[in-house]
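Lab meeting minutes (informal)
Scribe: AK
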Amino acid sequence: TCVGLRNLLQGLSFSVKYYSKHNHLQTVCLYSKIKHQKCHILDCSGGTCTHRTGPPGSIVPWRFFSCKEGTKIPAKRKQNTSITTSEHLYKDLLKSEQENWNDISKGYKAMTKRIKEKLEELHNKYMFNSGSPRIRFGENVYFEENGCIFLSKADDVDEGNVDILFSTEDLGFSDAFIQRIRISPDQKYMAISLKSDNSEEATCVIMKLGHFPAVEEVIPSVFSFEWATNDVLYYTSQKNLKCQNVFMTTFTNQKHTELVYTEQDARFFVDIYCTKDRRFLTINSNSKTTSEVWLVNCRHPFKLPALVQARTKGLIYHIEHRNDELYILTTYGEPAEYKLMKAPVASSGMENWQLVYALEKKTKLVDLEMFSDHCIMFLKNAGHLYLNVISFVSHSVQSIKLPTWACEFELESHPEHTSSTCYFQLTSPVHPPKRFAYSFKENNLIEQAVQEVPIITNCHTTRLLAKSKDGTSVPITVFHNMNSKELHRKPLLVHVYGAYGIDLNMSFKEEKLMLIEEGWILAYCHVRGGGELGLSWHKDGCQQNKLKGLHDLKACIMLLHELGFSQPKYTALAAASAGGVLAGALCNADPELIRAMVLQAPFVDVLNTMMKTHLPLTIEEQEEWGNPLADEKCMKYIKSYCPYQNIKTQCYPSVFITAYENDQRIPLAGVLRYVQKLRKAVLDHASNTSKKGNWIPSIILDIQANGSHCDSSWEDSLNEVCSLTGWREVVPSIDTSA
């Protein structure tokens, strides 16, 4: 069996992630399905454009299905000489950049060694003690550590009495990390997704549990999966960053696989979720602004799925179930923020939706967990985290404010909806995860101290509001060492994202804590385009409102400097993926505000990318950036802020970019063009202003052969800290008049 698994997974090129040693299991609650999946939220460029005349989503009768897929053979065509020349130039440029980085990185060896030792020390001190999220299933607890999946009784989990069910290393795949786990209702099967560091696609391994767990089946290119019954698994297949097909596979005596659903609209992405009470499995087809849900009856998994509500432009909704009623989290009605509504299963159309609870203004719904008699909403408001506990018995709502240091929730999986306790973890960029529980019986919050996590006591958290160009108040979260004096002389690292309605990532990272200990100030700018203040916050910063995010970022940095948090010559700006749009735009418009910029897999060539409909995500991305091919006004607007289009001969900050050679989301060619154009502008400016003592910024590009667009690796963390630390060490000697 092990040999069979190796053969089936042969060809996957795995690359070790440092964080795989403590990688958390993906635990999916209702709102986790609302958010785009981790790898889906960083979409920054394009999609396929295929004209179809069929309905948006199609439920196909079983008799029409075949689990075999035909292979299209591309027609032969004449070799295009210009394309061949372009490919040679691209390869030469790629080789040149790699050689340049190899020469530069030699000077960082001693620094890299020191930083690596420090990060390992911090990791051992904090993360090894924090534990990993657990899947509680009756008396059993499942959890993952170091690439292994363990089973323990609830009373023995902290005593070390555990059984090992799965090990990536024992099966010859120590370089893979475990992304998701799903246990069948009778706990006889376990489905696991394994993902590599340099691939967007995951492989699903189904284990048959028992005294001697064994591999039952391996399914390649899987995105999401759920058990409908004890031996029926539904899953979505992923190809070219798209999920548009749902399959059902059985593990009975007569195994078979059937295609259940296919999505025809290229703007929509399909995933699967099982309601908390395991009554229904939902097939969710979502674009950036619209959704549609089909229900699979888990008591009759072979029946055709039933439509809840036909897709309506601008209407987003997601489904849970309790006591023969659908609970619907939706944007239906005014204001266009999330509300909890309900409707009978038999009459699920939106004309029958009844309001249960509406969120307060400027409140972000982070997650939602449904139980038999309660519902817990995990909320953000003005930078603070809250729990809203809705009782379906007393029809009351209790609001609980969480510790002020907390910036992120990390929910644990609760497969049993009758559980009397909800478990979750709280974290921040400089605070390792700490476990909490809310007891419905006790009606209070319990801080778990089974595995003591050292408390970070020397870090101060400040929340500010900056006034943007149009008067809008923009939240900023600031961290700094409480013992630091003369903050105006300390280095400042500003973070920004501002796209897709996604919050800035504020989970714990050892390198952030290290920077605090080294005297840095960390600032997180929650600009429009992100989701920190709800759906309207995103809407106010996408398409024809993108420049508002740039104005927000400028206002945030200026306020920080005005309040004495560092100064321009000690300020660096960090961004990843779509965050590169605002970071690059600020670099062009107001380069004097920062001294350095660190980008990871940045989206810096918006216009050219959105003009190429052959790319995997272009069509889907039009709801975020607009369609420059169909709208000249949109083209001009994108051109007005696109980082690549607006590079000019002027003094720029130093720039360090990490890119990935096989990045499917951000074409490397666009990053290469950006770097070349930026270098030319820098050199032209230097030659035009050849004054003695003038500072010439460094434009450094690190192209990694392996690695994923979505997750930063151990090496990325090292490079980021090294580049910042190296820049900081030379700043004091720089002529500040430059």
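Next up, CB showed the second protein from the same session:
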Amino acid sequence: MFHIFQYRPLRLITQTSLSSMCLKPMLSRPVAFAQIWKSWFSSHFLLGNKNIILMGPPGAGKTTIGRIVGQKLDCPVIDVDDDVLETTWNMSVSEKLKDIGYEEFLEEEGKALLKFSASGSVISLSGSNPMHAAGMQHMKKNGIVVYLDVPTTVIMSRLKSMEVDRIVGLSPCNSLKDILQFRKQFYKRWYDIRVLCGEDVAAEVVAEKVLDAVKRYQDSELETFISTRSGRSGRSMEEDSHKYFSDVVVQGLAPDGGLFVPERGLPKFTAGEWQGLIEATYVERAEVILERCIHPADIPASKLAEIIATAYGENFSCSKIAPVRHLAGNQFLLELFHGPTASFKDFALQLVPHLFAYCIPRSCNYLILVATSGDTGSAVLDGFSRLHDTDKQRIAVMNFFPEDGVSPIQKSQMIGCQKENAWSVGVKSDFDFCQTAIKQIFTNSNFTGFLTVEYGTALAAANSINWARLLPQIVYHASAYLDLVHQGIIPFGSPVDICIPTGNFGNILAAFYAKMMGIPIRKLICASNGNNVLTDFIRTGVYDLRGRKLISTFSPAVDILKSSNLERYLHVIANEDGQLVTQLFNQLENQGHFQLQKELLEKLQQDLVAGWCSEEDCLAAIHSVYSTTGYILDTHTAVAKVVADRLQDRTCPIIISSTAHYSKFAPAILRALRIAEINQDPLSQLHLLSSYSALPPIHWGLLETLKKTGNGDHQVCAADMSVLMYHIETLIQNHFM
């Protein structure tokens, strides 16, 4: 991995260099010498020739924090306002602004920056410096730009108390709030590192955060990934499995069959940092959270912000992206269906294709393999089809789904989402076969090696086994909690419960990760349908597939018996004991069951409770909620609603994840609403549902996709590994050769 200062050899301290450091005689003692050496080494490694450049709005505390950082590093401190601009102009900044006006001031300020140079210093920019592109490009060449991100309301309060009445751009036509919001786009353009600064955080604390952030920026070695089946040292039983984020996005599954997880765990946010995001938009929250989870050596902050803006822009029909709606009593719905394919999978799969395209080497083509129980397929197909044309030429998608195990509308959607680089294949089996087959294909080195040598094509995964799929889901769980605080439902710090319809354990795992990162979640409620292996496991500690057959239900996305992401959760509560995780999942694979030790089960039950819902209760819940509120739940959300009603204790709010739009399951919804005759045509079913004028309205993207589908076709194959591999090779030949 690339390191900023690797190219600089460390200079040894000689007698000459010691004297140049102005050491007093008393400092020749061993302890004092060690202190000076430590200070010099820290400063030299952290800075070298580079500057630490502090950027942020007026009132962010750049000057004060810069002085503290400079003192800690024992290096020069430069304040652009005092030491550059006023020295150059021989007048105060406010006088200059008053003298020449806003636009000319920005130009003169930029010219002064262009003439300025420094190295090994801490530099505090003015609040308006980032608005001059050439000046910032000049500064950035020899500096690490640190954005002190302070909530706008805090800045306005500070400026008022400081009696600041003149900042660049302020006029009767532009309010202070408008100017601060306008400037954010420039700060986001230039920064390398963001440091969150809350209202009551002392400057000394912020300075330490700056130093920690700079150290992280320089050392990507701290953020490696290991397999859930690695030993405690991080070494796999097969090979050294340390990887970086860009590696795990591309590789998907670890070579030993385990799943990738961050070796040092997820970043922790302080309560103050979370509170600083209460007023933020969904996109802003996503930027902050994902920056802390993805090292800038893998994806720079500016590029990540660009990807997030693309993913959550016009593709979502609701400006709030993931709004929280009050349902009844202490129950709230987190609406996760406003993306283009009407399910929660869009949150990851509008983002992941762009992360993937950025991370992969340009010298190789990639085929993404996907197994879906319903919603993932159309979301993957849609997401990867939105890549730039040059990326679509080297990245293709093949989606395998159970031919008779998804709803008619879901199947129509997957057919309709096929594009020039995205195809669907129906398999005459269930989801568990599809998922197991893909895992076996990835670990078949003969087949994957053949594809690489013969066709220059590598395989990759976009299922929730891919680490990058989980990160965007953490964002919406955290955002839902912050929205409840913002709406005045709860004060920050009060707990909530979260209830999630659960199949592959990815969504509920993301909520658990949000809890680990500091969101006050009390209990995670796992809601199952008749395929209730997880309910039994959480209650008893026994994961037993013996004698179980998958049942087709009205909630097909959770028609799953082998929950892949459970492995990541067990890795956490087992204190990263990869040997134990390997033992458990080998036993599951070979014998069809495993049992947790008592202490692990007790740990699990501190986080999780579980229940399941019958088909009759699912339909009854849809009818009941519609009758009392006019709101239509989809079948998966209805499963969660039933379980939430049974398990919640009503001592705190409960957020129910509404994971899909009811339009996708029109036959079941119409049955729940007690419609006697149901037309088999999916488009007719949606038109009938729209006549109810219910909340939420019919999903726009789904309706458009079905209109375009018409008599679209797709391939169907037998449940045979060799047949699946034949389809993969044929697709590669047709698309890449």
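CB comment: Residues 38 and 609 are 50 Å apart (CA to CA).
No objections, moving on.
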